[in-house]
Every structure is written in C-alpha cells, then in structure tokens.
Amino acid sequence: MQDTRLAQAGQLRLANDFAGARALCEAVLADRPGDAEALALLGVCAVETGDLAGGRAWLDQAEASDPGLGLVPLYRSILHEAEADLPAALSAAQKASELSPDRFDVWGRFGDLAGRVEDFETAARALKAALATADTGHPARPHVALRLAGAELELRRLDAAAAALDVAEASGLAGTVEVLRLRAELARLAGDFDALTRFAEAWHALNPDDMDARGALAMGWGQQGYYRRAIHVYRPVVDADPAVADNWAALGRLTLGARDIDGARAAFETALSLNPDCVEACLGLARIHTFRGEQDAAVEMCRRALAVDPANFEAYGQLSEVSGGRLSDEETARLEDEAGKSGIPADQLSIGLFALGDVRHRRGQFDAAFEAWSRANDTKKLQHNGAIVSAYDRSEQTRRTDWLTETFTAPVAKPALSATPSPIFIVGMPRSGTTLIEAAIAAHDDVTAGGELSVMPVLFEAFVRWARDSGWTGGVIPGPVLAPWRERYLAQYSEFGLSGARWVTDKQPSNFLSVGLIQQMFPDAPIIHIRRKPVEVAFSIYRRNFSRMWPFAHDLGDIAHYYAEQARLGAHWASVFPDTVIPLQYEDLVSDFEAQLRRVLARCGLDWSKKCLEYYKLERTVMTFSAVQVRRPPSPVYLDSTSPYAEQLKPFAKALEELAVDPQTGEWLADGRPGGTDDASPSARTGFLRRFWNAKPERQEP
Questions:
Q1: Backbone phi, psi, residue 458, to 5°
Q2: DSSP string covering 454-484, please?
Q3: Which helix (H) or strand (E) holds 276?
Q4: Residue pLDDT, tens place only, 48-83
Q5: DSSP per-residue string spanning 333-390
Q6: With pLDDT > 90 as the criterion, what percentage of the chain qualifies?
Q7: Whether residue 445 has pLDDT greater than 50
Q8: What residues does 527 pair with on adjacent strands?
Q9: Which end of the chain is more exposed for a tag (fewer CB within 10 A), N or C?
C-alpha cells in the first residue's frame, strides 16, 4: 500500500510546493531508505526546479531500487524534455505506459509528446487510453479530449475528431476558443463551409484580435462565394502586419475568387516584392496567367515556385495542367521521387499523383499514367474519409432524383418576373463540354460569361430544407419564399462584376439538380443540357483533381451511377419543360459547330453572331480546368481520348451496362429506347415521400 505521505507529496508537487513535497519524501526515506517512489519524486522535483543533474541522480537511484516502477521513466521523460531531447522523452514515456498502463498521467504525457513529434497515430492511441483510464470528473479530462481531437484532425479522421470534441464540450469546454478553433478546422476539412463560418464567427466574437479567427472566417465566406465579405474580414490581417508576404498572397487568393484579376495580381506582386521566394504568390500569378491564356508566363511562374520548393506538388500540378503534361525529364524524375516518399499529407500527394499521371499520358506511358491516376483517386478517398472507401452515397443520389421527378411534374404558371441581366444556365456532367458552349455563347455582344457560379447549389440546399420543413410536395413555390433566393442569386452579378450585357451564363454543372427550382425562380431562363459520350466524361473526370464537393469523382462505378442519375433527371426536365430546356450533344456540337451553335442561340433568343463561331480568338478569362483547351477551335480530333485506356476503363463500361444510359450519347433510355423519361409507375414508389422527409439531405455544394 502506498504511503499516504507520498500521495500528499505528489499533490504538493503538482501545486508547485516543491519544498513541501521534498520534506515529505525525505521523511519517507528516513523510515524506509531506498523507497523508489520517494526517490523518483525527489528527482522530478529537482528537474522542475532547474537542477537537471541532481534530478538525474535521484532518478538513477530510484531505477536501481525498483526497475519496474513506471514513475521513473515518466519522470525521466520530463528530464529529457527539459534537456530538449524530445525523442528520448517520447521513448521514456512509452516505457512508462508499458510499466503503468493504468495511469492517466502516463498516457496523457505519452500522447502529448507523440503529438509534439508529429506522430499523430501514436498520439491518438495514447490519448484515447488516457480518457479510458480517467474518471469522468477528472479535471484534465476535457483538455485530453481536446488534444485527442487535434490528433484525429491531423489524421483526417473526422468522425473520431468530432466525437472527441463532444467529450471536451460535455466535460466543460463548450463554447471556448479552443473548441471553436478545432470545430472550425473540422468543418473546413469536412467541406462544410456553412459550419466553418458559424464556428469562426463565434471564435472571432470571443477573440476579435485573433487573426487566425479572421482567416478562418474569411475562408468560410469565400468558400460560399461571398468573396467581397471574405476580403473585408481578412483585410485587417494584412493591415496588422503589411510586411508579411504570406498575408498578401492569401488576400490575393480571395481577390482572385472575387474575379478581380487586377486586384489579385497586385496582391501577389506585393507579396513577391516583400519575399521573392513566396511560393503562394508565384502560384497565384501562375493561375492568373493560366486563366488569361498566357501559357508561357504561367509555366515560368510554376518553375519559379519549384526553384524555391522542389517538392511543391501544387506547382507540379499547375505546371502539368498549363503545359499539357510537358515536364522535363529532370522535373518528372523529381516529381516521381517526391510522390514515392512516405508521410506526405494526402491532399498534397493527390495533386502530385494527378500531375504524374498527366506527364505519363503525354509520354504515351498509358499503363503508368492510369496507375498514377488510380493512386491519386485512392488518395483522395483517404483524404476525405480516412480510408480508401467512397464518400459518394448512391442511394441518396437516387433518392434525390426520385423526389425531384415526383415533385416537379409540370410547368407552373409563369409569374411576371424579369431580371437584367438574365441567366442562361448550362448544366450536365462536369467535363461534358460546358466550358466550350459557354465560351461560344459568351462571345456574343449581349452575353457575359459567368463561369461556374456558386450560389445556385447553395440555394438548392436551402430549397430542400424549406420543402422538408414546410411539407411542400410540389406545385407553386410561394413568392415570398422565392424572392430572397432570386435576390441572392442576382446579387452575385454585382459581386463578380457581371454586368453590362443582357444575359449572363452560369455553367455550374450540378445545377442539373436545380432545373425545377430554376424554372420557378427564372421562368424564361434558357437551360442548356449538354451531353457527351459517357466514357469520355468518366475518363476526363477520373484524371482530374476534383474536390470533396464531388465525392463520386474518385471511383469509376460511382461516376457511372452519378452519370445515370444526371441523365435520368435531364430527360425528365426536357420532357416537363420543353420550352426552356435545350438538349445538346457534345459530339454533334464539335462535328457540326456552326449549325448546332445557330440552333442553340436561336433557342436562347439570341441573334446569330459570327463572334460566337470564333470565340477562341477573343481575349477572356476562363477560371476552370478547361482554361487551356477552350482557347483552341473545336475539333473532332479530341472526341476520342479513351482508346488507349479501354482495358482500364472496363469497370466503368460494365457499370454503365447495368444502367439505362446510351453508351454512345449519354441519353437516358426509357423502355430501352433513346429519349423519353423514366417510366416507373407511381405505385412502384409508394411511401417514397414519407421516407424523404425522414432522411437527412446530402450537401451538394460545388
């Protein structure tokens, strides 16, 4: 049984009463010379009062007296830390955990030290053990839970991090800056930017001078498309320390998001004037040059970034994108070497692997190229989910398509609504030709290119929530509900400077979900639904670095399923809204460009313009993956990119065979025939609406 004087000495030591702790330990030693615990306590008291040599001597005596006492390596870890030898401190803490696996303080220290040396897997394991051995009311429990959440976030295990934060909050840290900071980071990693904004706002309210809080809040607003608001929030960070190049580079990224090319360029150039080696500024300027079609300048900035940081995967990614995979032998070898290293964060590694695939493709090394892209997509799954499993919910996507086809069954009476400028929507699959048709239409004097505007997907989610809460099951959406959504959508025109023309294009592909809502928000808006041969779309998606907002993009079977749901819904919209939905086949557009373009322009209510035919001659900014390709005239040469990969793409072809999609055109097949709509009878879906209201919708923001 432990001498009660030693327990008291331990408490006095924790209260920094080292003299009192020493006196009790010396009294114990007077009664029991060689007591290992008393010797160990004297040792740690000496260490914590600055006598490292004396502390080591006491600990050596304690270990000689009882080699199996876990307190000795625990206190040695404190000694090694004081000597700035973290590896030795970690090793000692690990030994303590083996000798005393039932002690909370041992596991807590082991976890803290593992985290400090960035061994987050070990840190998480040790901190979990600490929580398991601690009493529910232990005063250190919430802080251990907080550190566990931090380790799980480093490992991208988001569910585990959320659970640890729940423990920290339940134990008394709810609403604290520390919890809000980690909640904001969790929301960022999960891609839930609405939640990021909420947590960052609360964090900023508690500590208005915390520039990290401002940075998080700016990211939240920016990711939701509120770039002007984000810039307003972030500007004080730059003003607080205008000599920091990285702050200017971050401001440049936000300004670029707001489509202020000149302002972004100025911010990046300021960053480089402060630090010529600011990689983020180099890459920001490379993006601008890419968007502007200034290929040589973009390549130069990418290589400037690589000269500073030869292991920068983002620089390789941009260089590969703008050059079409034309990396030098030296750059290729270096990229391959970096991608083969262990311990690289998944988000960075995936960028490098996508670039490596493109380089191998350019060199005709097709097996190696597809292997790199496959690794990249597996890494994306790992980044998002903590395991190589898909985050795409096929049943949810099917459920959502079912609901939309059942609730939007006929046009509603068109209200007297007008807007100037007015939208032209271009929808379909990503990589289906949306950029090409937008570029051609936007060359018209009466049209401004909006690109992939971000607001409609957000409004669609708001509509889904409203429908659920209100019990709406179809028909007219009330005017007071539609009005703020219309206002928010149109507000982005001024936010992005999209004025001066009668029409503005919006080529956000995922708006195919929103056609029924669009028809009521903007009754006269043309909606171009572009289709492309499915395998070409799948291949183009699979080889590109799509964000977590497109969870289907990293698995060929998921791409096939998403394609089919998009085709099914597209056929439904064409049937229900034939006056406004304009089907367009990409292969027909490329093969007979002028005739197809004339047809689309006429359906949109636009006069013919030769400028549309020669869109590629115009100077314009294109802020998508297609920024390079769209500066070339359309050509049938690019219709077949998949022949070298026929074997690797068999999983997609097989998955598509089981779905009602024409493998050549991508049309939805009703009764096995092209055209028409899904003919499933209402009785086949009995009870669906009830199930819908009891299910939680999936976010689909771009």
A1: -65, -40
A2: SHHHHHHHHHHHHHHHHT--SSPPPHHHHHH
A3: none
A4: 999 999 999 999 999 999 999 999 999 999 999 999
A5: HHHHHHHT-SS--HHHHHHHHHHHHHHHHHTT-HHHHHHHHHHHHHHHHHHHHSSSS-
A6: 77
A7: yes
A8: 425, 581
A9: N
Mean pLDDT along residues 612-631: 65
The amino acid sitting at 157 is R
CA separation for the pair 58, 47 (Å, rounded)? 10
Domain 415-693: homologous superfamily in CATH: P-loop containing nucleotide triphosphate hydrolases (3.40.50.300)
- Does the structure show a pLDDT above 60 at 526? yes
pLDDT, residue 31, reads 94
SS3 403: helix
Neighbouring-strand partners of residue 423: 504
d(CA 451, CA 444): 15
Read off the pLDDT of residues 210-232 as tens digits, 9 standing for 90 and up.
999 999 999 998 877 788 889 99
- Cα dist from 243 to 41, 75, 273, 274, 483, whole Å: 49, 44, 10, 7, 45
The SS3 of residue 531 is: strand
CA–CA–CA angle 431, 434, 440 (5° rounding): 135
For residue 51, the surrounding DSSP H or E stretch is none
Residues 6+ apart with CB under 8 A from 464: 697
pLDDT of residue 15: 93
- pTM of structure: 0.73
Q: At what angle are helices 211-223 and 177-190 packed, to 10 degrees?
A: 30
Phi and psi at residue 674, to the nearest 5°: -60, 150
Tokens of 78: 């404190």
